[in-house]
Amino acid sequence: MTVGWASLGERTDIQRIAIVGGGPGGLTLATILKPLRIPFTVFELDASRNSRGQGGMLDIHKETGQLALQKAGLMDEFKKRMRVDATEFLLRDNTGAVRLHHGAESEEDPERPEIDRAELRGLLLDALEGDDVKWGKKLASAAKTTGEAGGTFDLHFADGTKEDGYNILVGADGTWSRVRPLRSDVPPPYTGMNIVSTSISDIDERYPHLAAFVGNGSCMMVSGKALVIAQRNGNATVKTYSCIPVEENWKETSGIDWTDQKKGLTDFIDRFHSDWADEVKQLFVECDEGELAVRPIYMFPANHKFERKLSGVTLLGDAAHAISPFAGTGVNNAMYDAFELAVALEKVAFEGAPVDEVLEDYEKRILKRASADSEECRHNQEMWLTGKSVDEIVAQFNAMFGGAEDS
Ligand SMILES: Cc1cc2nc3c(=O)[nH]c(=O)nc-3n(C[C@H](O)[C@H](O)[C@H](O)COP(=O)(O)OP(=O)(O)OC[C@H]3O[C@@H](n4cnc5c(N)ncnc54)[C@H](O)[C@@H]3O)c2cc1C
Question: What residues does each domain of the chain span?
């Protein structure tokens, strides 16, 4: 039997929502539920809000990510923290020649302003209260009890603790979600691509020529066989990513000794970027100590669905539809999923809508949206990493931007 909150009486005393994962998706959901007084708790594996670096910058799209922030009442705060100058885009070929330059968007009502991931997390956390997020809670497994009104969820954490009595469980815990097994046994397939990433701090002082090479925002470099993207983050840090078509466990099988960071990166450059501009090589080799990462990338294919139904549990963001960075939509989808899920839960809380019906409708919509993006990622990966000429790739970007401004 599915039950609506309104039909149960005083909703805040009865319904408890567990959100597993305090990434952009889970926290956006929390910030929207908060002013609606719909009770929730976020369980996040990080020990605290500052316990690890949060990665690079993200462009927040007007029609999805910004809409979610608006629903949470956070657009004014977002505008204070967004970086419109970072929307500048340079496309270079592997020799370093500029093939397309697109200037920054207008400060007035920008379509896709950038924000550092840590700033975005800070913005969302500042809108919550102390008890809303429980830190250091890595979900090990979740199970549903049988009981009155359809049962509740028990959460078992890696630290040996247990929480119980949650009526609704939301998995917002990313690509390797521990909630997803309640709905599906299918893991996200490997894309065929690893990303080698580096980070250089204090770039203006230490490497001004690299700062000039990258520009104020994103600088993408293509050869037809590999793709490099360097991004200037808010704190004068440049993060650089090399996307290479290799086997899944290439970090281990490459024969590169990654324990000696500088030597490892020099060997990597010799293998994948030996005929690239010196600036590109330096963006890797001069990486701050300890900031090198090598990651295989995973993505669900178009038309992916959850295998099983289980009343009261759903997923959002990468937990629902992990995607590669090649459509630039992962975080926006996660935030927009949060928006759509909050609207669905609002209907349950204030109109007495049946939980299962609204969740089923929500899942149909988010999986359809993600399916189109997954297809775009696959297409772009094929275009950028395997086989197209630099001229063909430049033509694709020209079409995307409606013609170069000054190429
Ligand atoms: C190199 C790279 C670059 C990218 N660049 C872009 C970009 O430019 N634009 C874009 O839109 N997207 C980009 N993406 C994709 C984007 O980062 C993700 O799609 C987005 O972060 C998904 O948000 P999420 O909240 O669903 O999941 P995540 O951001 O993965 O957040 C999940 C949260 O859950 C926590 N968690 C995980 N497991 C558990 C557990 N067992 N228990 C409790 N908590 C847990 C994690 O610590 C984390 O805080 C990029 C991805 C990569 C790898």
Answer: 5-84+107-188+301-382, 190-298
pLDDT band at 54 (very low <50, low <70, confident <90, very high): low
Ligand 1 pocket mutation, candidates 169, 173, 297, 369, criterion most atoms within 8 A of CB: 173
Fold classification of 190-298 is D-Amino Acid Oxidase; Chain A, domain 2 (3.30.9)
Per-residue buried b or exposed e for 232-261, using 16+ beta carbons within 10 Å of the residue's own CB: bbeeebbbbbbbbbbebebbeebebebeeb
Q: Which atom of ligand 1 is nearest to the CA of 137?
A: 43
Does the pLDDT at position 148 exceed 70?
Answer: no
Instruction: Please write the tens of the pLDDT for every residue from 37-53.
Output: 999 999 999 999 887 66
Q: Is 340 in the pocket of ligand 1 (CB under 6 A)?
A: no
Residues 59-99: tens digit of each pLDDT: 999 999 999 999 999 999 999 999 999 999 999 999 999 99
pLDDT tens digit string along 162-195?
999 999 999 999 999 999 999 999 999 999 999 9
* CA separation for the pair 339, 278 (Å, rounded): 44
Q: How far does residue 263's CA lie from ligand 1's centre (Å)? A: 29
- The alpha carbon of 330 and the centre of ligand 1 are apart by a number of angstroms equal to 8
Question: CA–CA separation, 385 vs 37, rounded Å?
Answer: 48
Domains 5-84+107-188+301-382 and 190-298 are alike in CATH topology: no
User: What CA–CA distance (Å, rounded) separates 182 from 171?
Assistant: 10
User: Is ligand 1 within 6 A of the CB of residue 171?
Assistant: no
CATH level 3 topology of 5-84+107-188+301-382: FAD/NAD(P)-binding domain (3.50.50)
What value does the mean pLDDT take over residues 253-264? 96
Round to whole Å and give the CA distance between 74 and 66: 9
Closest CA to 31 of 4, 362, 10, 22: 22
Each residue's pLDDT tens digit, 100-121: 999 999 888 899 999 999 999 9
Pick from 50, 114, 318, 377 the residue to mutate for probing ligand 1's pocket: most ligand atoms within 8 Å of its CB. Answer: 318
14 alpha carbon to ligand 1 midpoint, in Å? 31
Other beta carbons less than 10 A from residue 208's beta carbon? 10
Nearest CA to ligand 1 atom 21: 331
